[in-house]
Amino acid sequence: MNILLGVTGSIAAYKAAEITSRLTKLGHNVDVLLTESGSRFITPLTLQTLSKNKVYMDMFEEITPSEVKHISLAKKADLVLIAPATANIIGKIAHGIADDFLSTVVMAAAGLAPVYIAPAMNTNMYENPIVQENIQSLTDRGYRFIEPKASLLACGDLGKGALADVDEIVDVVTKALK
Ligand SMILES: Cc1cc2nc3c(=O)[nH]c(=O)nc-3n(C[C@H](O)[C@H](O)[C@H](O)COP(=O)(O)O)c2cc1C
After folding, report:
1. How remote is the CA of residue 9 from the centroid of ligand 1, in Å?
2. In three state form, how does the secondary structure of the chain look?
């Protein structure tokens, strides 16, 4: 199956390497879309090596003249997974903003593929009513969330906001693809 994995600028982005590796070893084709902020936490080279595919970052690169990449990637996807998902990408999707490769592909994938979002952020950010409203609004529109867990966070706070376990994320994706 074709999985489109969005990786955003969370400290949990390093876990995207494990997610990519596990899904690839399960026999799926994983195309990774890495945001500019995401690339501050994990390199495209790591994700390219594990997925054995080019990692997409620049929407205007258009390496294949015969196609418009953000549309062809959206059409190709059997499932879109954003893990980790920042407060920012959740807000952008909820409000129809398409100002980078990932948010544009997610916009184009509407009605074509299920979108699973695994948030990761500081507890205060996660509990911010604006973030919660965005999650609710997306849930109402059929987007699926893989809930973060409570843990000691990288910032030192103890609370909800840590990325769900990789095992759980892989399990949810595997079941969704069956
Ligand atoms: C060290 C560090 C860790 C961060 N971790 C998170 C995080 O876990 N979740 C989050 O929503 N934002 C986090 N941010 C802030 C995002 O990187 C920032 O909002 C960025 O604009 C997100 O861009 P993106 O959604 O396009 O990847 C972090 C920033 C820094 C400097």
Report:
1. 4
2. CEEEEEECCCHHHHHHHHHHHHHHHCCCEEEEEECCCHHHCCCHHHHHHHHCCCCECCCCCCCCCCCCHHHHHHHHCCEEEEEEECHHHHHHHHCCCCCCHHHHHHHHCCCCCCEEEEECCCHHHHHCHHHHHHHHHHHHCCCEECCCEEEECCCCCEEEEECCCHHHHHHHHHHHHC
Q: Indicate whether this model's pTM tops 0.85.
A: yes
Catalytic member of 130, 150, 152, 155: 155
pLDDT in tens, the chain (178 residues): 999 999 999 999 999 999 999 999 999 999 999 999 999 999 999 999 999 999 999 999 988 888 988 999 999 999 999 999 999 999 999 999 999 999 999 999 999 999 999 999 999 999 999 999 999 999 999 999 999 999 888 888 888 999 999 999 999 999 999 8
Atom of ligand 1 nearest to the CA of 12: 8
Q: Which residue from 7, 11, 33, 82 has its CB within 8 A of the most atoms of ligand 1, so it is best to mutate? A: 11
Q: In testing the pocket of ligand 1, which one of 88, 106, 117 has its CB within 8 Å of the most ligand atoms?
A: 88
Known catalytic membership, residue 1 = no
